[in-house]
Every structure is written in C-alpha cells, then in structure tokens.
Design a protein that fits this description.
Layout (H helix, E strand, L loop, with lengths): L2 H16 L13 H4 L6 E5 L5 H7 L4 E5 L3 H11 L5 E4 L2 E3 L3 E8 L6 H4 L12 E13 H7 L4 E6 L5 H11 L5 E6 L10 H13 L6 E2 L4
Parallel strand pairs: 1-2, 1-7, 2-3, 4-6, 7-8, 8-9
Antiparallel strand pairs: 5-6
Length: 220
C-alpha cells in the first residue's frame, strides 16, 4: 500500500473513532425522471449498494433491476427490497464484458462493512480502497443485459466507483445508449488519477453526439 493510502487509512480511523456515523438508508430524490417512472417502465440501478435509489425507483411500480457485487451490501439490499415483486436483484458488478474480477474494499471496511461498502471498486488505484483486500465477484456485460431485455430502459443510474467509463464508452460504441431514455451517472475521475483523460474524452463524445440531455454526469 502506498504512503498516501496509509495516511488516509490512519486519518480515516481517527475520524471514525471520533464520529462513527451510519450508512445511508434514506434519501430524498426530487429529480423528475425518478418520480415519473410507472408500472410499464424498466429502471436499472447499477451500484445499488444498500438500496437507497432502488427503493425510490421501486415505489413507482416499475420493474427495477438492481446490481450490487459487494456481498455485505447485497445482504442489506436483499433484506430491504428483496421482498418487492417488482425488484430483481443481481449480485454482480457491471462492466463492458463478462468475467470474474477482484472488488477492492474500502480502507476502513473492517470497521463497518455496511457503512464503507459504498466505496468498493473494481479499480485498485482508487484512492480510498485497499489494493491488498478484496473479494472476487461476478461481472456482467451491461450492454448485453440491456439488449437482452427486449424493450427500452426508461431510467439507468450508474454509480460503480470508476467502472462507469468503460460501461459508457461501450454503450456509445455499440449503440446500446439508444435503448435507454435517461442515464444518471456519478463519475470518479477525481478519485482515480488515471481516468482523468478518459473522463474528458467521454464528455467530449457526449457533447459531439448531442447526448447531454440524455446522459447526466453531474447529478451528484
């Protein structure tokens, strides 16, 4: 582990002792696209974590597919929304191709797996994960999954801790973006230095194709 991560872990341990905090279980969402989903719609939550956004999507009656690879987060997700008939849970990560990859855990994960599950990433250089601790997880090709649904997706939310760039570039390359009405993405180039150029290129591609109204990279 590099010096910056060692210092970040020590700092995180100190902050956690002083203010343990809790995982996020509730969130108010006022974005129109989330509130206007209906029973005839399909919504996908990539990086569902503890189900905060999945719950918002599910209230509409839409068919919701929630993807979460972290085993502790998935257990909480299943407990929270697993009983809803319109929610379909997938203990998988999403990327541009299928396989099995290492999911790296947050530097302070051992202190509170539920709270710190949110920072887990497939990218070891992400500044708040421990490259020496992780779990192997199943990965699916999100484009292939969307294409296999047989009808358009009304709403796609992506919060996958750096893997969003590979997914979105693949959706643009393969035309899968045409099957989705609206995409909300949390980007992570600020936490992964090697992705800064990739982030810039993605924004350029979105602008060049006039997709700024469809793909929101700044919703969080």
């Amino acid at each position: 582990m590099n010096l910056k991560k060692v210092l970040k872990r020590w700092g995180g341990n100190l902050v956690y002792r002083l203010r343990p905090g809790r995982a996020q279980h509730v969130r108010d969402v006022t974005i129109a696209e989330f509130l206007t989903l209906g029973p005839d719609d399909i919504a996908i939550d990539c990086g569902a974590n503890l189900g905060v956004i999945t719950t918002v999507m599910a209230r509409s009656g839409a068919q919701v597919h929630a993807f979460e690879p972290n085993p502790d987060a998935f257990a909480s997700l299943k407990e929270k929304v697993g009983g809803l008939a319109n929610v379909h849970l997938h203990q998988q990560a999403v990327l541009d191709k299928p396989g099995t990859l290492r999911l790296y855990l947050h530097l302070n994960y051992a202190r509170n797996p539920e709270r710190f599950s949110q920072g887990s990433s497939l990218i070891s250089e992400k500044r708040n994960v421990d490259e020496n601790h992780g779990v192997d997880v199943e990965v699916i090709d999100l484009c292939q999954f969307i294409e296999g649904l047989g009808r358009p997706v009304k709403l796609l939310k992506i919060d996958i801790e750096g893997a969003e760039y590979a997914v979105l570039h693949a959706m643009l390359d393969r035309g899968t973006i045409d099957l989705v009405e609206k995409v909300f993405v949390e980007t992570h180039a600020h936490a992964i230095a090697s992705l800064k150029d990739t982030d810039l290129r993605l924004r350029q591609r979105i602008a060049e194709r006039g997709l700024g109204g469809k793909i929101d990279l700044n919703w969080i």
